[in-house]
Amino acid sequence: MNVTAKFLGGSGVVTGSKYLIDIGEFEFLVDCGLFQGPKALRQQNWDKFPMPVSDLEAIILTHAHLDHIGYLPKLVKQGFNGPIYCTEATAELAKILLLDSGKLQEEEAEYARKKGYSKHENPQPLYTMEDAEAVFPLLSPNLSNLPLKFIPESK
Is this model's pTM higher than 0.85 or not? Predict the structure, then answer.
């Protein structure tokens, strides 16, 4: 069995954690974080996801920091609709943090529009509170539901 890991974030920087794991029959992300910090990093949040999101079968979250969960609303908005596995505590914290992040994104876009400091004529948020809420039904806080069929048995 060939297993590949591709670092889509969290490599060379301590932000934007996204690791694509391909086990042949099962392709999933470990974490789905937002790039934070200097503008050059934050701009990466606007980049096109490097593969069709429909190819992803699942996401596994390690914990609920925005640099590990903050890209979820954008990925769901792009069409991801698979399970997002996490602990119950992570699911509850993710709901709070993603709503807050969506609100801040909306407020920042409105402020940029009002003050005219954006290079865009009509600045848009990366995602909204509504986009954040679309993530909630996908959260699967029962780790016993995690499909372990893809893990080879040891001999």
Answer: yes
Name the residue with tokens 């769901």: 76
CA–CA separation, 4 and 31 (whole Å): 16
Alpha helix ranges (H) inside the chain: 39-42, 66-69, 72-77, 88-115, 129-133
The type of residue at 153 is: E
Q: What is the pLDDT of residues 124-155, one digit of tens each?
A: 999 999 999 999 999 999 777 777 655 555 44
Sign, CA dihedral 105-106-107-112, equals: positive
Taking the chain, what is the end-to-end CA distance rounded to the nearest angstrom?
A: 14
CB neighbour class for 124 (10 Å; exposed up to 12, middle 13-18, buried from 19): middle
